[in-house]
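Lecture 7 notes: from sequence to structure.
We start with the chain below.
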Amino acid sequence: MRPSCFVGAVALVLLAVGCADERHPTAPQQSRVPVMQVLRWAGNAPPTFTATGRPAGGNRDGGLQPSLVDGLSLDQNTVTFWAVRGEERSIQINYLSSTGSTSAPFMNLAITDPVYVPGRGELAPGDSVLITVTIDPTAIKLSLEPTGLQFGDPAQLRISYGGADGDMNGDGVVDDADAAIETQLLGLWYREDADSEWTRIPASQSLADKSFVTALRHFCDYEVSFTEFAVSW
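Predicted C-alpha cells for the same chain:
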C-alpha cells in the first residue's frame, strides 16, 4: 500500500472510532444540579423570640394583639397584629440564642398601605386587616399572611441572618467557605405557597448588620438561602 493510501485508511479508522464513541459514550456523564440551602439557626436548640410593635405616633398599644405581652416562644411561634390602610404599623421580632448569650433583631416589618385582601377585596382608608407572622423554628425563614395581601405603597421587610452565627453551610465550622457564601451567593428568596418554586428577589444586603431589606408588594413565604451545585451521574 502506498504511504498516502495508508495515511488515508488510518484517518478513516480514527474518524469511525470517534463517531462510535460519540454515539455510544462509555464514560458516565456528570451533571450539575442546583440545590437550595437554607440557613439554619446556630446551636443545638432553636432560639426563643420576643416581639414588640409600634403604630404611628409611637403608642405601643396600636393594634397589637394581647398575645404579644408574653412575646413568642417555640410553642407559640406565631404573632398577629392589625394593619390599617393609611396608618403606619410595624412589628419587630428579636431572637435570643440557644445559649442565651446573643439577643438581636430577627425581623422588622412596617406596613402603611394594605389595599387588597384575597377573598375580601379592596380596603378603604381606615380599614384594617389582621397580619400573621409565623417563624420557622429550625431555619431562618418565615411566612407572612394573609397570603396574597397586596400593597399600594410597598411594605418594608428586614430579615437578619445573624442567628446562623456565621455558619452559612451548616457544617459546624466557620471558615473561608462561609465567607464566600455570604458575600457571593447568599440572598433573600420567596415562594407563593408550598407547591411553588423558590425565587430570589431583589434585596439590599448589609454585611455589617447581617441582614436583607426588601420592599414587598404582596405577602408569601420568605427565607435566607443560597444555591449550590451538586454533581450527579
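Points to note: The CA atoms of residues 81 and 131 lie 5 Å apart. The helical segments are 3-23, 176-185.
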